[in-house]
Amino acid sequence: MSIEITAIVLLAAALHAGWNALIKISGDRVAVMAFVTLAGSLISLPFLLFVESPDPASWPLLALTILLHTGYHFFLPVAYDHGDLGAQRWASRQRRQPECDLRVPFDR
Q1: Using one digit for the tens of pLDDT, what is the confidence trace for 38-75?
Q2: What pLDDT, on a 0 to 100 scale, did the predictor assign at position 6?
Q3: Which of 14, 44, 77, 107 makes an SS bond possible with 29, Cβ 3.0 to 4.6 Å?
Q4: More confident residue, 23 or 67
Q5: Contact assessment for residue 23 and residue 32, using Cβ atoms and an 8 Å cutoff
Q6: Which of 95, 56, 58, 49 is nearest to 75 (CA)?
Q7: How far apart are CA 31 and CA 106, in angstroms?
Q8: 3-class SS string, the chain
Q9: Exposed, middle or buried, 89 (CB in 10 Å: 0-12/13-18/19+)?
């Protein structure tokens, strides 16, 4: 792997750990997650100019993916209210995405 790719991977890991820590220490975790998600979306938006639009046949699957990912981004901070960052992050990754989205509010 080239040094540039290694640097990008390490930067991505640092950013990912950073926003998880920011969410954990903030007062309103859902609002901070919403802000981080919105900021990431706004930063990514200009790059849409350089890629092709997806095939219209894939739009329903794209919409479902966005819906599930939005649910994940909502329920992860809720899970942090009920447990440690490391434990909840591990638990969310061990479950299938839809199951995680549906079960987290009831894990008390």
Answers
A1: 888 899 899 989 999 989 999 999 999 989 988 888 88
A2: 93
A3: 77
A4: 67
A5: yes
A6: 95
A7: 21
A8: CCHHHHHHHHHHHHHHHHHHHHHHHCCCHHHHHHHHHHHHHHHHHHHHHHCCCCCHHHHHHHHHHHHHHHHHHHHHHHHHCCCCHHHHHHHHHHCCHHHHHHHHHHCC
A9: middle
CA dihedral of 48, 54, 60, 62, whole degrees rounded to 10: -40
pTM for this model (two decimals): 0.58
Pick from 97, 99, 84, 66: nearest CA to 20: 84
The structure tokens listed for 70 are 């939005």
What band does 77 get if pLDDT is binned at 50, 70 and 90? confident
Residue found by looking up tokens 């549906």 in the block: 102
| Whether residue 7 has pLDDT greater than 90 | yes
Report, as an integer, the average pLDDT of 78-106: 59
